[in-house]
Specification:
Helix content is 22%, strand content 34%. It is globular and about 65 Å long. The protein has a seven-stranded mixed beta sheet with strand order 13-12-11-14-15-17-16. Strands 2-3-1-4 form a four-stranded antiparallel beta sheet, with helices on one face. It contains eight helices and 17 strands. It has three domains: 2-61, 2-Layer Sandwich (Alpha-Beta Plaits), CATH 3.30.70.2580; 71-138, GMP Synthetase, Chain A, domain 3, CATH 3.30.300; 161-328, 3-Layer(aba) Sandwich (Rossmann fold). Strand 14, helix 7 and strand 15 form a beta-alpha-beta unit. The longest helix is centred in the first third of the chain and has 13 residues, at 95-107. The protein is α/β, with parallel strands linked by helices.
Length: 329
Amino acid sequence: MSVPCVAVERERGEAVRERLADADALDGDHEIAVDGDTIYIPVADPEAVPDDLAATIVERDAAERDRPLTPAAILGYDPSLERLGDIVIVDEDDGERAREIADAVMASDVPCETVLNRASPIEGELRVRRWDVLAGNGTETVHREYGHEFLLDVAEVYFSPRLATERHRVIEQVAPDETVVDMFAGVGPYAVPMAARGAEVVACDLNGRAVEYLRENAERNGVADRVTAIAGDVRELADEHTDTADRLVMNLPHSAGEFLDTAVRLAGDDCVIHYYDIQHEDDPFGPGARAIREAAGDAYDVSVETERVVRSYAPHEYNVCLDVRLSRA
């Protein structure tokens, strides 16, 4: 039977499938197929396919599939779940309900080794949280994103799979031979793919355990020769790397503004800053743009190239990104 399918490179398959699922566009009645280097993902509603994937829709014969047993089918309701590698994450205040969901996940056809429940908000300078292990026995996993693998332990490092699309947007802008400084690098979801595009990346994080994973992830993705991973405060890098960066990643939304003086010191003659911020919906981009201009002073001409709402963060608050170019005056 001929059905509409999104046709993309095989290595992008899982990331695109997740985006289509988030858009409620997936066709669960037909099988995903692989032909050579291309994966064909059936869609139920072509109109719901994200705009940047619309041109990839083709008609193709697809086999009907047996529907897998889902947690929702077992429970009689659709629980809120998040996937990270082979970990499934629930977010339930009711411990009994959380364990009921965990049992259903493990009994379903969802590929899963561990089920976790959030036991605390993100805490402390290292931005980690506590977890209740509901099933399985570990918090370490391998997350796959746009053809790259990231080993991480959710109990020791901060990582959000929900930012995959945003990370990919930024990474796609990187040209070979750029010098990039990832100021708050975590386990490397920006740094590793940027290095894979040919950039030389200096990646820093205050969390020493995250930097250990970053080094491992650079090795497992074949880019260790282009990633310099440094454990510590990025402000301590400024003397050694002054005036070197063609691109800066500042993904520390609550407090990136405190590091703008360091960013200006790191910036080369022509540098793009990807500046992440949390702001009220009334003026989501203005505070960040004003802070960058103030930090740049007379040394640089400042132009805001992109203003992007990444996601809703809290009622009336947005997580936003400003792509800002600094050109030395």
